[in-house]
């Protein structure tokens, strides 16, 4: 086998071309891992919002709060269904909610769909992991709102003590809450009845969240609700609900794969060209090595190693940039707003994780192997006497 | 050591066939310094390549170091070259990214020798050509004559019986050319190598044992060189 130093030495010897090829591969890795990171983060945000022992109750056939309505009698009855958990003062952990999706004006002057959730104070206990980190909970009938961490500072008026304008009213921001990075942090919460009045909804509630009591099977309770002939309702564990929401993010994976393939092909051609040039420039050298007795296979491997080394260096640079840029974006912008027809704007913290890096490593290595293969084959197939002839 | 019987080699160039070697029969004894001379295009390199196991004849027998070369596969020939033949070229053909020692060590990578042993032998070979102190220099830091001496060290490092050299002095000035010829001479005399050299260099006559002349692929009767 030819020494590694030989393959690497050649990469260093033709600095400019190497740098160019490495740069292209690094850019591909950067783009793909950022994009993949974004999609993974979005999925993660959506999926982590759900908890398995909380049921989402919606009108039959609705896939999300936005298109649902639940009658008042149903809300009253379901609160006291057997299997619904109670808090320490024996109040049912049930949270009737109204979801609307008005436009908020962003500080940059844009408009974004934001999820506004009308709730009762009980919501703070039914939804897991909600902490008010600044200010306080809103009080009913006073035009007050609390906003998620990602909403804060993103929209006009979205700060403690300021007024948000949406619907027909102005809402005073009295608190900011966190929920451990879940999509709730991209929401604004106000009093349910006020929101219903403001949005002139005939039915005040679009859905209901129920915490399942310990020892009760969430699926069984969900079935009992779904089978109840009095109302046409559907219930499912929150995890399932958010999984379905996250599925709509899958389209982004398709885009990511398409992007990966396209940029990957581009980079492959770049690497191929670089290596063909190297083979051409080193014909006499290849002939010499073959004369000395190196096999076709060791020539093939050496060129493949050159190509893989290009890819690996490209990957290292690209992934370091991607991780760094991910942090920078999160630091500077607080996250990336993700909007799609099926869900409201979610501010997602851009984090490039191991999965995203692994995906782009696979891509980079594929570029290295595919790009190096044909030039390596040509080098290996050179007949030594031809390679050694001048001109 | 080297036996060629009725060896022919034809190159096809488009519709034409160029007969580079025409029924060449040639014996070279072990430990000799042999020159192949003749006009350009007369088939000298072709003959040398066949002797070295780089090329195969269309017909005829080639036995080198007891092995029938035309019967061997591509990979067997590679192994044969690694074991029995050292190469010296007109343009030195050192690997630019490797140091002198790295270049000289290359043939040893095809043996089972360990790292320390390889290094030791490479330095020994460099000492023989008088360049031990330049071991860590890259080819572009060496003069043409020095590069050719490194190439000779590379050719002998694995201790092959045969060294083939295709116009080894063709790219050197007079002083360096003579030094290289003396070095090749020493390989025969001091180390018992069989050296086959293609050359246009008239000065070679003073150093070699036998001169074979080729013309249009046909070998003339051998001449004893001046020194023999
Ligand atoms: N690969 C090849 N394809 C076609 N023709 C070839 C090939 N190699 C050699 N020839 C031809 O065969 C003949 C002999 O070539 P060879 O290289 O052996 O000559 P040479 O005596 O070494 O010449 P020079 O002194 O110029 O090196 C020439 O006519 C040459 O053009
Ligand atoms: Mg020639």
How would you describe the overall organization of this protein?
The complex is a heterodimer of chains A (391) and B (228). Chain A is an alpha+beta fold. Chain A is 50% helix and 19% strand. In chain A, the strands form three sheets. In chain A, strands 1, 2, 5, 6, 7, 8, 9, 10, 11 and 12 form a ten-stranded mixed sheet that branches. A two-stranded antiparallel ribbon of chain A has the order 3-4. Chain A has a two-stranded antiparallel ribbon with strand order 13-14. In chain A, β3 and β4 form a beta hairpin. Chain B has one domain (30-59, 73-224): Rossmann fold (3-Layer(aba) Sandwich). Chain B starts with a strand and ends with a strand. In chain B, a hairpin with a 2-residue loop joins β9 (210-215) and β10. In chain B, the strands form two sheets. In chain B, strands 3, 6, 7, 8, 9, 10 and 11 form a seven-stranded mixed sheet that branches. Chain B has a four-stranded antiparallel sheet with strand order 2-1-4-5, with helices on one face. Chains A and B meet through α1, α9 and α12 of A and α2 of B. The complex binds adenosine-5'-triphosphate and magnesium ion.
Task: Explain briefly what this protein structure is.
The complex is a heterodimer of chains A (391) and B (228). Chain A has helices spanning 4-13, 15-49, 72-79, 123-126, 192-198, 218-227, 238-247, 250-281, 283-292, 296-333, 354-381, 384-388, and strands at residues 54-59, 94-100, 103-105, 111-113, 115-119, 131-135, 144-148, 163-166, 169-178, 187-191, 207-211, 233-237, 336-340, 343-348.
